[in-house]
């Protein structure tokens, strides 16, 4: 592991809104103010740990300055971001991403603006210790949770960490990253879950794969068509349905994961263990 420093700038926008300023800088703004000021995007980088084991790090902080404006001819448009990374050995690399902006009407039950990334993988790569890596954005970390869509409240400057990882170029990499073994629902612990993330830069088809812990009757088999996009995370709950994280659950009305310790395993259709996650008194088991 080594250190690197990130900076970013906004080189282009797909439309020409009125009062556009700040292109090629870390703060771009647009629109005719209808109150507090213009709207715009800000990216602030910083020092990061360079890890090539799939661990996530904060690429930088994204801020949407979301203030009432007028004059837009298009409510949806793209804003390009370039992130420059300078490594300890002096190597420098640029990674580009596109932010899709939805300037929603400031009325109705959901006036918040929306920011999405059409793709979460940089087209550029960098070679580290002889292996080619791309930067994979996991999502925006808001209120302690990594989400794929940034929801921005009106009349405020809203920020989130951009969570990313260095991922081996051209390969899928589905792994178990978390086991919530102690639920809050009494007796049944229906809100237990296992989280799986595709840390690769290619889609991961896990149709027919099995999640379990070597306990009879507690396996979960992923249905046909289960494909994880690069950086996508899903959860398999014990007995709750959460569409925002995939909508998967065991449908079992009792706790599955041992509070003292267990090993969650993800197996492919051939029965090969692709990923496992040990916790509690099982964490020290070789």
TrEMBL record:
Source taxon at top rank: Bacteria
Pfam family, one: LTD
Region (Disordered): 267-286
Residue span, LTD domain: 173-281
Protein name, UniProt field: LTD domain-containing protein
Source species of the chain: Actinokineospora spheciospongiae
């Amino acid at each position: 592991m080594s250190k690197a420093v990130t900076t970013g700038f906004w080189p282009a926008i797909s439309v020409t809104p009125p009062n556009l300023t700040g292109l090629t800088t870390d703060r771009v703004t647009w629109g005719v103010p209808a109150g507090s000021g213009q709207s715009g995007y800000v990216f602030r980088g910083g020092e990061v740990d360079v890890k090539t084991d799939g661990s996530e790090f904060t690429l930088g902080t994204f801020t949407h300055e979301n203030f009432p404006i007028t004059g837009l001819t298009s409510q949806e448009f793209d804003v390009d971001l370039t992130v420059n990374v300078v490594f300890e050995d002096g190597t420098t690399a640029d990674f580009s991403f596109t932010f899709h902006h939805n300037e929603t009407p400031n009325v109705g039950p959901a006036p918040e603006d929306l920011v999405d990334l059409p793709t979460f993988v940089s087209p550029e790569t960098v070679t580290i210790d002889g292996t080619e890596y791309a930067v994979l954005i996991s999502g925006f970390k808001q209120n302690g949770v990594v989400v794929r869509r940034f929801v921005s409240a009106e009349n405020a400057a809203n920020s989130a960490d951009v969570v990313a990882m260095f991922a081996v170029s051209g390969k899928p990499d589905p792994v178990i990253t978390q086991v919530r073994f102690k639920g809050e629902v009494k007796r049944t612990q229906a809100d237990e879950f296992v989280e799986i993330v595709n840390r690769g830069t290619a889609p991961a088809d896990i149709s027919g794969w099995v999640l379990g812990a070597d306990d009879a009757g507690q396996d979960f088999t992923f249905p046909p068509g289960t494909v994880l996009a690069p950086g996508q995370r899903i959860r398999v709950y014990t007995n709750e349905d959460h569409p925002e994280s995939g909508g998967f659950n065991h449908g079992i009305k009792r706790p599955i994961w041992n509070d003292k310790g267990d090993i969650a395993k993800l197996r492919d259709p051939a029965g090969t263990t692709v990923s496992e996650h040990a916790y509690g008194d099982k964490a020290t088991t070789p």
